[in-house]
Design brief:
alpha+beta; Rossmann fold; 2 domains; 12 helices
């Protein structure tokens, strides 16, 4: 698919009515843009509490849409994108909700609906990676979901479960402050076994595990500094603070090094090595078995509890509309062959990872130097 404006003529908007302040105004803007660019009258499909966007996205694909635009929060974007994977139909991003995580990581406009609509009609096509997560639930059942930005166990998932949704609607990301305070009081650490790509199985305890297809959060926080949305790999971080000093190390790395030093060539010369409280790895596939079920989040939405996770990158699996001339590929592009090589052949591991005895117990703590393989 060429990264140039294409002569497409059909667009469908999948929208979350809870996240749209003025639906009539949005429909008028889209209709005017369609007429201006010579497209057919746009179709609109509403999401529901039970059908959050994937079913609607598939309906739009079957109807022949060339672009399916998501108008809602990050959950709507994730669900609609799931329906477009592996097709030639592009995803349009219309800002809604409080996070806009994918648009943020693509450096798209977050506060100008008219501009975003114009990009959906007249933008360029960009192929990006997405990730899949297979989860084993507490009752032994399994399910699968896509995510575009990040998945996480621990602090971020607990933070989301503690967030007041009404307060979030009123004050946006400030609503997470109280939730973070509540989550930080939870001193329970997760104990896990994991395998990254073809490395050996390792044991680890951590406060939080976050796996990212890309690395930026709201408030311009760069959590995963080398994550790139089109390099065929994810970056994961284990947060392992032992004390208040450990949290200080994490804040120093994320706020100062990632947020300031890494943004300039001069500053990158002064970036230090990983610290024990925060360790990064990169890979294409990750399997995790937890000692007990934990809350998990996908793209900022709580996704229940899981006792095991298998996640992998679907390299170049999604087309997104971006402004013409703003496609800046990462230095390391994904090989299309990786789409086939990283797909798993079964459900996520249950009580043990492949190659382990079924009754193997989770061992005690291991040192940071032993616990994380070199990417």
């Amino acid at each position: 698919m060429s990264d140039t404006p294409s002569a497409r003529h059909s667009l469908t908007v999948v929208y979350n009515p809870v996240k749209v302040d003025d639906l009539v105004a949005a429909q008028e803007l889209v209709a005017k843009a369609a007429a201006r660019h010579g497209w057919e009258d746009p179709a609109w499909i509403e999401t529901t509490e039970d059908e959050t966007g994937e079913k609607q996205g598939r309906e739009a694909v079957r109807a022949g849409s060339d672009v399916v635009a998501s108008l809602g929060g990050d959950g709507t974007v994730r669900a609609v994108a799931s329906a477009l994977v592996g097709t030639d139909v592009a995803l349009g991003l219309l800002p809604g909700g409080t996070g806009n995580l994918l648009a943020r990581n693509l450096d798209l406009t977050l506060d100008d609906l008219a501009n975003s609509i114009n990009v959906a009609f007249a933008g360029a096509d960009r192929r990006i990676d997405l990730a899949w997560a297979e989860l084993r639930r507490e009752d032994g059942s399994t399910d699968r979901a896509a995510y575009l930005v990040m998945a996480g166990f621990g602090l971020d998932a607990k933070m989301l479960s503690n967030t007041d949704e009404e307060l979030k609607a009123k004050v946006g990301w400030l609503a997470y402050v109280a939730a973070i305070r509540t989550a930080l009081r939870d001193e329970n650490r997760m104990r896990m076994r994991y395998r990254l790509d073809r490395h050996r199985i390792r044991a680890l305890s951590a406060h939080t595990l976050i796996i990212g297809n890309c690395g930026s959060l709201p408030a311009n926080i760069l959590l995963l500094p080398t994550a790139a949305i089109d390099d065929g790999r994810f970056e994961a971080v284990f947060l392992r603070p032992e004390s208040a000093w450990g949290w200080t190390q994490i804040m120093g790395k994320v706020i100062w090094e990632n947020g300031v030093l890494r943004r300039t060539r001069w500053g990158r010369k002064f970036v230090g090595r990983d610290v024990d409280a925060l360790r990064y790895v990169k890979g294409r596939r990750l399997e995790v078995v937890l000692s007990r079920p934990e809350e998990i989040e996908l793209d900022g939405d709580g996704f229940g509890r899981a006792s095991a996770l298998r996640t992998w990158i679907d390299a170049g699996g999604l087309i997104v509309r971006v402004p013409p001339g703003e496609h800046r590929p990462s230095e390391e592009r994904a090989d299309p062959q990786e789409r086939r090589e990283t797909r798993p052949e079964g459900p996520p591991p249950a009580g043990a990872l492949p190659g382990e005895a079924e009754d193997a117990e989770l061992p005690g703590e291991v040192t940071a130097e032993e616990s994380l393989p070199t990417p």
